[in-house]
Write a structure and sequence with these properties.
This protein has a seven-stranded parallel sheet, sandwiched between helices. Helix 1 runs parallel beside helix 2, helix 1 crosses helix 8 and helix 4 runs parallel beside helix 5. It has one domain: Rossmann fold (3-Layer(aba) Sandwich), CATH 3.40.50. The chain contains eight helices and seven strands; from the N terminus they run E-H-E-H-E-H-E-H-E-H-E-H-H-H-E. It has about 260 residues and is α/β, with parallel strands linked by helices. The structure holds nicotinamide-adenine-dinucleotide (NAD).
Protein backbone atom coordinates (compact mmCIF):
# COMPACT_ATOMS: atom_id res chain seq x y z
CA UNK A 1 0.00 0.00 0.00
CA UNK A 2 1.37 3.43 -0.95
CA UNK A 3 2.21 5.42 2.12
CA UNK A 4 -0.41 8.14 1.54
CA UNK A 5 -3.12 5.44 1.40
CA UNK A 6 -2.05 4.04 4.77
CA UNK A 7 -3.82 6.96 6.46
CA UNK A 8 -7.02 6.73 4.41
CA UNK A 9 -10.15 6.13 6.51
CA UNK A 10 -12.87 6.25 3.83
CA UNK A 11 -15.65 3.76 4.67
CA UNK A 12 -14.63 3.57 8.33
CA UNK A 13 -16.88 4.49 11.27
CA UNK A 14 -15.51 6.19 14.38
CA UNK A 15 -16.89 7.14 17.79
CA UNK A 16 -15.17 9.98 19.64
CA UNK A 17 -16.17 10.44 23.27
CA UNK A 18 -15.62 13.93 24.65
CA UNK A 19 -15.91 14.95 21.01
CA UNK A 20 -17.74 18.22 21.62
CA UNK A 21 -14.65 20.30 22.36
CA UNK A 22 -10.92 20.38 22.91
CA UNK A 23 -8.81 17.42 21.87
CA UNK A 24 -11.88 15.25 21.16
CA UNK A 25 -13.21 17.81 18.68
CA UNK A 26 -9.84 18.02 16.90
CA UNK A 27 -9.63 14.23 16.67
CA UNK A 28 -13.17 13.98 15.29
CA UNK A 29 -12.30 16.53 12.61
CA UNK A 30 -9.07 14.70 11.82
CA UNK A 31 -10.78 11.32 11.38
CA UNK A 32 -13.41 12.96 9.17
CA UNK A 33 -10.75 14.68 7.06
CA UNK A 34 -9.21 11.25 6.55
CA UNK A 35 -12.61 10.03 5.32
CA UNK A 36 -14.32 8.40 8.32
CA UNK A 37 -17.93 8.85 9.42
CA UNK A 38 -17.83 10.20 12.96
CA UNK A 39 -20.14 9.84 15.96
CA UNK A 40 -19.55 12.81 18.25
CA UNK A 41 -20.42 11.52 21.73
CA UNK A 42 -20.46 13.89 24.68
CA UNK A 43 -22.37 14.98 27.79
CA UNK A 44 -22.91 18.31 26.07
CA UNK A 45 -25.34 17.54 23.23
CA UNK A 46 -25.62 21.10 21.97
CA UNK A 47 -21.87 21.44 21.41
CA UNK A 48 -21.69 17.88 20.03
CA UNK A 49 -24.32 18.84 17.44
CA UNK A 50 -22.28 21.89 16.41
CA UNK A 51 -19.20 19.69 15.89
CA UNK A 52 -21.24 17.09 13.96
CA UNK A 53 -22.45 19.86 11.63
CA UNK A 54 -18.88 21.09 11.14
CA UNK A 55 -17.82 17.52 10.31
CA UNK A 56 -20.63 17.04 7.78
CA UNK A 57 -19.32 20.07 5.89
CA UNK A 58 -16.24 17.93 5.18
CA UNK A 59 -18.45 15.63 3.11
CA UNK A 60 -18.74 12.68 5.51
CA UNK A 61 -21.64 11.57 7.71
CA UNK A 62 -21.72 12.58 11.35
CA UNK A 63 -24.05 12.03 14.28
CA UNK A 64 -24.18 13.69 17.69
CA UNK A 65 -25.02 11.44 20.63
CA UNK A 66 -25.49 12.49 24.24
CA UNK A 67 -23.68 10.22 26.66
CA UNK A 68 -22.39 10.28 30.20
CA UNK A 69 -19.54 7.78 29.97
CA UNK A 70 -19.95 6.81 33.64
CA UNK A 71 -23.40 5.38 32.90
CA UNK A 72 -23.21 1.84 31.48
CA UNK A 73 -26.71 1.97 29.97
CA UNK A 74 -25.93 5.25 28.20
CA UNK A 75 -22.64 3.90 26.85
CA UNK A 76 -24.41 0.80 25.53
CA UNK A 77 -27.11 3.00 23.97
CA UNK A 78 -24.36 5.04 22.24
CA UNK A 79 -22.91 1.85 20.75
CA UNK A 80 -26.34 0.57 19.69
CA UNK A 81 -27.22 3.89 18.06
CA UNK A 82 -23.96 3.81 16.10
CA UNK A 83 -24.63 0.26 14.91
CA UNK A 84 -28.24 1.18 13.97
CA UNK A 85 -27.15 4.18 11.91
CA UNK A 86 -23.78 3.07 10.49
CA UNK A 87 -23.85 -0.73 10.85
CA UNK A 88 -20.41 -1.09 12.49
CA UNK A 89 -17.66 0.58 14.52
CA UNK A 90 -14.05 0.56 13.29
CA UNK A 91 -12.50 3.19 15.55
CA UNK A 92 -13.04 4.38 19.12
CA UNK A 93 -11.33 7.45 20.51
CA UNK A 94 -11.98 7.66 24.25
CA UNK A 95 -11.22 11.29 25.07
CA UNK A 96 -13.91 12.27 27.62
CA UNK A 97 -12.10 13.34 30.76
CA UNK A 98 -11.97 15.92 33.53
CA UNK A 99 -9.28 17.53 35.66
CA UNK A 100 -9.25 19.16 39.07
CA UNK A 101 -6.60 20.63 41.32
CA UNK A 102 -6.99 19.76 44.99
CA UNK A 103 -4.45 18.78 47.65
CA UNK A 104 -4.57 15.08 48.55
CA UNK A 105 -4.89 15.80 52.26
CA UNK A 106 -7.96 17.93 51.53
CA UNK A 107 -9.53 15.84 48.78
CA UNK A 108 -13.07 14.61 49.43
CA UNK A 109 -14.16 11.12 48.51
CA UNK A 110 -16.60 12.75 46.05
CA UNK A 111 -13.69 14.53 44.28
CA UNK A 112 -11.75 11.27 44.06
CA UNK A 113 -14.71 9.22 42.85
CA UNK A 114 -15.76 11.78 40.23
CA UNK A 115 -12.37 11.91 38.50
CA UNK A 116 -11.79 8.17 38.68
CA UNK A 117 -15.30 7.34 37.47
CA UNK A 118 -15.09 9.61 34.39
CA UNK A 119 -11.42 9.23 33.43
CA UNK A 120 -10.97 5.53 34.22
CA UNK A 121 -14.26 3.65 34.77
CA UNK A 122 -16.08 5.59 32.04
CA UNK A 123 -13.24 4.98 29.62
CA UNK A 124 -13.32 1.26 30.46
CA UNK A 125 -17.08 1.09 29.87
CA UNK A 126 -16.64 2.66 26.43
CA UNK A 127 -13.78 0.31 25.51
CA UNK A 128 -15.77 -2.70 26.76
CA UNK A 129 -18.98 -1.88 24.88
CA UNK A 130 -17.19 -0.98 21.64
CA UNK A 131 -14.62 -3.78 22.04
CA UNK A 132 -17.42 -6.38 22.07
CA UNK A 133 -18.58 -5.19 18.63
CA UNK A 134 -15.02 -5.07 17.28
CA UNK A 135 -14.29 -8.60 18.53
CA UNK A 136 -17.32 -9.89 16.61
CA UNK A 137 -15.93 -8.39 13.37
CA UNK A 138 -12.29 -9.22 14.15
CA UNK A 139 -11.36 -5.61 13.38
CA UNK A 140 -10.87 -2.38 15.25
CA UNK A 141 -8.60 0.35 16.53
CA UNK A 142 -9.17 1.83 19.97
CA UNK A 143 -7.31 4.96 21.03
CA UNK A 144 -7.48 5.91 24.68
CA UNK A 145 -6.42 9.38 25.79
CA UNK A 146 -4.20 9.13 28.82
CA UNK A 147 -1.71 11.90 29.64
CA UNK A 148 1.90 12.51 30.52
CA UNK A 149 0.33 12.74 34.01
CA UNK A 150 0.14 8.94 33.83
CA UNK A 151 3.95 8.87 33.53
CA UNK A 152 5.19 11.78 35.68
CA UNK A 153 3.64 13.72 38.56
CA UNK A 154 2.96 17.26 37.36
CA UNK A 155 4.64 20.25 38.99
CA UNK A 156 3.33 22.10 40.97
CA UNK A 157 -0.44 21.53 40.82
CA UNK A 158 -1.92 18.89 43.16
CA UNK A 159 -3.98 16.36 41.19
CA UNK A 160 -3.27 12.89 42.56
CA UNK A 161 -6.66 11.49 41.51
CA UNK A 162 -6.14 12.73 37.92
CA UNK A 163 -2.59 11.36 37.75
CA UNK A 164 -3.70 8.03 39.21
CA UNK A 165 -6.55 7.81 36.68
CA UNK A 166 -4.19 8.46 33.78
CA UNK A 167 -1.57 5.99 35.01
CA UNK A 168 -4.36 3.44 35.21
CA UNK A 169 -5.54 4.28 31.68
CA UNK A 170 -2.06 3.42 30.40
CA UNK A 171 -2.11 0.02 32.13
CA UNK A 172 -5.72 -0.60 31.10
CA UNK A 173 -4.74 0.14 27.49
CA UNK A 174 -1.93 -2.43 27.61
CA UNK A 175 -4.20 -4.98 29.30
CA UNK A 176 -6.97 -4.62 26.69
CA UNK A 177 -4.37 -4.70 23.91
CA UNK A 178 -3.05 -8.00 25.25
CA UNK A 179 -6.54 -9.56 25.57
CA UNK A 180 -7.83 -8.37 22.20
CA UNK A 181 -4.76 -8.76 19.99
CA UNK A 182 -5.94 -12.23 18.88
CA UNK A 183 -9.13 -10.61 17.55
CA UNK A 184 -7.27 -8.02 15.46
CA UNK A 185 -8.47 -5.26 17.78
CA UNK A 186 -5.61 -2.86 18.45
CA UNK A 187 -5.59 -0.68 21.57
CA UNK A 188 -3.12 2.19 21.94
CA UNK A 189 -2.96 5.35 24.00
CA UNK A 190 -1.95 8.92 23.29
CA UNK A 191 -0.31 10.62 26.27
CA UNK A 192 -0.42 14.37 25.67
CA UNK A 193 1.52 16.95 27.63
CA UNK A 194 0.11 20.41 28.28
CA UNK A 195 -2.35 21.25 25.52
CA UNK A 196 -4.06 24.62 25.31
CA UNK A 197 -7.70 23.46 25.62
CA UNK A 198 -10.65 24.61 27.73
CA UNK A 199 -9.81 22.00 30.38
CA UNK A 200 -6.41 23.61 30.90
CA UNK A 201 -7.66 27.19 30.49
CA UNK A 202 -10.37 26.63 33.13
CA UNK A 203 -7.80 25.26 35.58
CA UNK A 204 -5.37 28.12 34.88
CA UNK A 205 -7.94 30.80 35.77
CA UNK A 206 -6.97 30.36 39.43
CA UNK A 207 -3.21 30.16 38.86
CA UNK A 208 -2.29 31.83 35.54
CA UNK A 209 1.41 31.88 36.55
CA UNK A 210 1.58 28.08 36.21
CA UNK A 211 1.53 28.33 32.41
CA UNK A 212 4.88 30.15 32.53
CA UNK A 213 6.41 27.41 34.70
CA UNK A 214 5.02 24.67 32.44
CA UNK A 215 6.60 26.33 29.41
CA UNK A 216 9.96 26.52 31.19
CA UNK A 217 9.76 22.82 32.13
CA UNK A 218 8.92 21.79 28.57
CA UNK A 219 11.99 21.41 26.30
CA UNK A 220 10.04 22.86 23.35
CA UNK A 221 9.18 25.88 25.57
CA UNK A 222 5.51 26.05 24.62
CA UNK A 223 2.18 24.38 25.28
CA UNK A 224 0.70 22.12 22.60
CA UNK A 225 -1.91 23.41 20.19
CA UNK A 226 -5.08 21.27 20.27
CA UNK A 227 -4.84 20.50 16.55
CA UNK A 228 -1.40 18.92 17.08
CA UNK A 229 -3.17 15.75 18.22
CA UNK A 230 -4.71 15.23 14.76
CA UNK A 231 -1.69 13.46 13.25
CA UNK A 232 -1.10 11.00 16.12
CA UNK A 233 -4.82 10.19 16.18
CA UNK A 234 -5.13 9.37 12.47
CA UNK A 235 -1.85 7.46 12.63
CA UNK A 236 -3.11 5.18 15.42
CA UNK A 237 -6.61 4.86 13.92
CA UNK A 238 -5.37 3.81 10.49
CA UNK A 239 -3.34 1.11 8.76
CA UNK A 240 -0.31 3.37 9.16
CA UNK A 241 0.07 1.79 12.63
CA UNK A 242 -1.12 -1.73 11.74
CA UNK A 243 1.60 -3.50 13.77
CA UNK A 244 1.18 -1.30 16.85
CA UNK A 245 -0.83 -2.31 19.87
CA UNK A 246 -0.43 -1.63 23.58
CA UNK A 247 1.80 1.33 22.84
CA UNK A 248 1.98 4.71 24.54
CA UNK A 249 2.39 7.51 22.02
CA UNK A 250 3.74 10.43 24.02
CA UNK A 251 3.28 13.94 22.57
CA UNK A 252 4.46 16.40 25.17
CA UNK A 253 7.01 18.79 23.65
CA UNK A 254 9.69 16.63 25.27
CA UNK A 255 8.45 17.11 28.86
CA UNK A 256 8.87 13.50 29.99
CA UNK A 257 12.22 12.81 28.30
CA UNK A 258 14.20 14.91 30.74
N1 LIG B 1 -5.63 19.53 27.63
C1 LIG B 1 -4.56 18.92 28.10
O1 LIG B 1 -3.53 19.54 28.40
C2 LIG B 1 -4.56 17.43 28.25
C3 LIG B 1 -3.33 16.82 28.48
C4 LIG B 1 -3.29 15.44 28.63
C5 LIG B 1 -4.45 14.72 28.53
N2 LIG B 1 -5.63 15.34 28.32
C6 LIG B 1 -6.83 14.50 28.25
O2 LIG B 1 -7.44 14.68 27.00
C7 LIG B 1 -8.84 14.45 27.13
C8 LIG B 1 -9.58 15.62 26.55
O3 LIG B 1 -9.20 16.78 27.27
P1 LIG B 1 -9.51 18.26 26.75
O4 LIG B 1 -8.36 19.08 27.15
O5 LIG B 1 -9.92 18.20 25.33
O6 LIG B 1 -10.74 18.62 27.71
P2 LIG B 1 -12.05 19.48 27.44
O7 LIG B 1 -12.57 19.85 28.80
O8 LIG B 1 -11.78 20.59 26.46
O9 LIG B 1 -13.04 18.42 26.77
C9 LIG B 1 -13.51 17.30 27.46
C10 LIG B 1 -14.85 16.88 26.89
O10 LIG B 1 -15.29 15.73 27.63
C11 LIG B 1 -16.66 15.88 27.92
N3 LIG B 1 -17.02 15.10 29.11
C12 LIG B 1 -16.64 15.34 30.40
N4 LIG B 1 -17.20 14.42 31.22
C13 LIG B 1 -17.92 13.59 30.44
C14 LIG B 1 -18.72 12.45 30.70
N5 LIG B 1 -18.91 11.98 31.95
N6 LIG B 1 -19.32 11.83 29.67
C15 LIG B 1 -19.17 12.30 28.40
N7 LIG B 1 -18.45 13.38 28.09
C16 LIG B 1 -17.82 14.02 29.10
C17 LIG B 1 -16.87 17.37 28.11
O11 LIG B 1 -18.24 17.74 27.95
C18 LIG B 1 -15.94 17.95 27.05
O12 LIG B 1 -16.61 18.14 25.82
C19 LIG B 1 -9.10 14.22 28.61
O13 LIG B 1 -9.16 12.84 28.88
C20 LIG B 1 -7.89 14.84 29.27
O14 LIG B 1 -7.63 14.28 30.53
C21 LIG B 1 -5.72 16.68 28.17
Amino acid sequence: MAVQNLFDLHGEVAIVTGGAQGLGKEMGLALAEAGASVVVADMNLEKARDVAQEIEKLGVQSLAVQVDVTQKDQVEAMVQKTIDVFGKIDILVASAGVGQWVKSEEMSLEDWNRVISINLTGLFLCCQAVGREMIKRRKGSIITISSMSGIVANVPQPQSHYNASKGAVIMLTKSLAMEWAPYNVRVNTIAPGYMQTKLVEDLLVQYPEYAKLWRELTPMKRLGRPEEIKGPCVFLASNASSYMTGSVLVMDGGYTMV
